[in-house]
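WP5 quarterly update. Target: DUF3806 domain-containing protein. Source organism: Corynebacterium guangdongense. Length: 143 aa.
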Amino acid sequence: MSTDAPQITPLTDDEQSWLTERLAAAQEAGLLADPQLLADSFDTSRDDFHARPEHERGDASMLVNIYSAAFGEHFSRVYGLQWCIVTAGENAEIGLFDPASESVLLPLATVAGRWTDPGMRPMADLIAQTQTSLESMGAVAQA
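Structure tokens (predicted):
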């Protein structure tokens, strides 16, 4: 296991387009207006999804990606985190980086993990926990 810090690189044009499409869908759905709306929508969608029999669920990956992008964008706007590619070992994924505190946030993995386990606490708790974590690492909310 490597203890090296993750490598931070800018998004490619394709990655930026992928993110922009999901953020546009999140904006259209009102998910970027207020973190409580994001939390309520996520929890309702997750609960509805898991209430269905497994063979009736379909693929929720696009929906989860939209929620993940909205979750990340909230912290990008509040703390000035920069969208980037975070590479750790052989794994690379879209994430957020705060150059001042060197904090890294992986919204896709974080939200996907919350989606797949319906027993997890509500999204509002995740938002509050992430905010506390970022601030404890030195991230400062933008005025």
